[in-house]
Structure formats: C-alpha cells, structure tokens
Amino acid sequence: MKFDLLSESDQAYFIHKASTLVEALPYIREHSGKNIVIKYGGHAMGDSELSKKFSQDIGLLKEVGINPIVVHGGGPQIGEILKKKNINSNFVEGLRVTDIETVKIVEEVLSKDINKKIVSDINLSGGKAESLSGNQNNLVEATKLKMAIKDSDSNIEKILDLGFVGEPVKINTLIIEQSINKGHIPVIAPLGIDSDGNTYNINADTVAGAIAGALKASKLLLLTDVAGILDENKKLISSLSFEDAKNIFKEKYVSGGMKPKISTCIDAINKGVQQATILDGRISHALILELFTEHGIGTQIYS
Ligand code: ADP
Ligand code: MG
Description:
With 303 residues, this protein is α/β, with parallel strands linked by helices. The chain is built from 9 helices and 16 strands. An 8-stranded mixed β-sheet has the order 5-10-2-1-13-15-16-14, with helices on both faces. A two-stranded antiparallel sheet has the order 3-4. The chain has a two-stranded antiparallel sheet with strand order 6-9. Helix 2 links the parallel strand 1 and strand 2. Helix 2 packs across helix 4, helix 3 packs across helix 4 and helix 6 runs parallel beside helix 8. It starts with 7 loop residues before the first helix and ends with a strand. The structure holds adenosine-5'-diphosphate and magnesium ion (MG). The site of magnesium ion (MG) has 4 residues, from loops.
C-alpha cells in the first residue's frame, strides 16, 4: 500500500535499488568463501568520505561470506611526516630508498597511525578488523631487496642499495588464516622482518601480491589513484592477458609506482591467483562496483 504513495520517480528509484541487489546475487555466489586480497592505496586512503565507504564495502564483503584481506600502503602519509622532519627521500623504480632513521618512521606511521585508523574505521562500520604487521610474529619473512639495473650506455648490470627496503621471502599464512577463522578481517601493514630481526619497508603492492599468492586468493585488487594502467595516449587499458602484461611492463609509458603494481600482478598470477585488477580507489564503492556488477572497473589482468 505504502508504495502507492510514492511518486513514479521514487518508485523507479526503489525498483532500481531492488534490482541492483538481485543482480549482485550471482557475483555474491561466485566470490563467497573465497579469499580476496585488497591493497588499499596511499592516495585513495587520504579522503575521509572515501575511507568510510571503503570500510563499509569491506564490511559488506565479509557479511556475504567473502574473506577480504586488507594490505595498506602509506606512501603519501609517510612522505608528509618525513617532510615535516626535514628528511629527504629518493625513489628508485617507484620504491623509496630507506635508511635506518627512515625505516623507524615508516614502521611507526604504517603499523601505528595508518593501520590503527583503518582497523577503527572498519570496526565503526560494524566489521571486526584485526591489526597485523608484517614484521610481527614473522608474518612476512623478508630479505633485503637486491635491485639490478642495467646501465643504458654500457649495458653493465649494477645492484642498487635501497637500504632497508625488503622483499618478501615467505608469508606465514597461518596467522592470516587464524584471523579469518575467528571471523576477523586482517588489516596488514607492509613491513617485513629478516632472520636477524631487521625490519624492512616493503612496497605494499608487493606484500599484497605475495600474500595473495601464498593464500591462493581468487583475486588481488590493487586500489590506487589512477583509473588503471593508462597507455601512451592516457587511455585506460581495461584488460590484459598475462603475456601482454609481461610486455607492457617494459613500455616507456609505464613508470614509477605503476611498475611494482604490474610486476606484482604478474607474480601473483604466476603463483595461482586467478585475476589481478588495478583499479581506481578514488571512485565511491570501487570494490562493490568491481566485484558485484558487470561493469568491472580498472585494468584486469587474467591468467
Ligand atoms: P599507490 O599509492 O596507489 O601505490 P603510486 O603512486 O605508487 O600509487 O602508483 C600509481 C602511479 O603510477 C600513478 O599515480 C601514476 O602517476 C603512475 N604511473 C606511471 N605509469 C603509469 C601508467 N602507464 N598508467 C597509470 N599510472 C601510471
Ligand atoms: Mg605505490
């Protein structure tokens, strides 16, 4: 009866809402029970309205039986604190050169400020998030990253020293699985620890990919501050095969922070993740659009 009182446009609005829910059903069935690793990006994280929506989306995923595992970045936030402290940092191939003083600040900002904020946002939205840090309980066993680059003139390969920048060697998945089994949403700071107890700063995309690979996640979603991979004309590349991804990685128009993202997607698929997507975290409810509608967003890389 109440429906009769609604104007035609209101009726259309509510019918549209109802059909959106019904249309989501096959997607909910597809993803339910699966592990989906989500890298929550530095820039996408800064906006309070967007972060509220992100937390609600994560809560919704959990509610419909998906296991979201959140790995967060913190580049811009770390950059701000370092600037305030007058500490300069250089980037090589999208990675921050990290000395001992910097790694302490990185650890503080990532595992205290940012991690706790995301956990509290998810909890405020009704989820049960659990704070985890890669350098605690050997969650992310790491080693110092040895990055080799070829000198363009001589073609001689040299190893760059990026300081306390690490790469994951082993992920102790049991800690994550225990968290999931308790009904929690793991929220992981991208740090690692080596056998001597040194803490390393690790690119959050790399950590997310390593975790997705170790958990054999069905999907890896990398939220960022661009629409996805853009080509030389700044046009979005909406889908890429695994083989094409390996080639595009070497293109001139792929630089900076996009490089670790693409190599992460390639590695994750190599380890059995079915699909990796680089998507725009600045879009409201980006996760819901990507997972529950036919309009996938961003760049999909598939095996
Ligand atoms: P995040 O904080 O999400 O990890 P990054 O700054 O590390 O973000 O990486 C995303 C950035 O990569 C983009 O903002 C863009 O400046 C840069 N980038 C380089 N090449 C490309 C490309 N081909 N397509 C899209 N973005 C690119
Ligand atoms: Mg980055």
